[in-house]
Predict the 3D structure of the following.
Amino acid sequence: MRKKAEEMEQMYFCSIVKNKYPHLIMNTDLSGVRLNIRQAVNVKRMRTSNGFPDIVFYEPVGCWHGLFIEMKASGEKILTKAGRLYSDEHILEQAAIQRLLQTKGYAACFAIGLEAALKALELYLDDQWHRAREHPQIIIPPER
């Protein structure tokens, strides 16, 4: 059920963004879309990693080349009480891709829920990305 909630929030997020920021170039990953076996195999062959973020904005702002957001459903927990990422293989793979994107000049984060994704985009577009860590539902994987 969590995957369906994430999909619905992501669709709503994209709808809001298209209406509020019609000038932005945005693309989404198809990993949440139901495909038949042949299509799924072909998509997997064309992808460099399973950890690629859900949404990308091709909009340079300040020192950043673009923004990548990995959306999670509202209420989903990806951090332990100690503030570390859970040892879930998929979450760790997503975090590794985000760190790699950061080294290449892209802003990247996990956004827990619709409001966090909207806030991440707002901070990015306002050239205030350095404040993203202040929001508890925007998680930027630390460098290792």
Observations:
- The longest strand covers residues 67-72.
- Helices lie at 2-20, 37-46, 89-103, 114-125.
- Residues 2-139 form a domain with the Trna Endonuclease; Chain: A, domain 1 fold (CATH 3.40.1350.10).
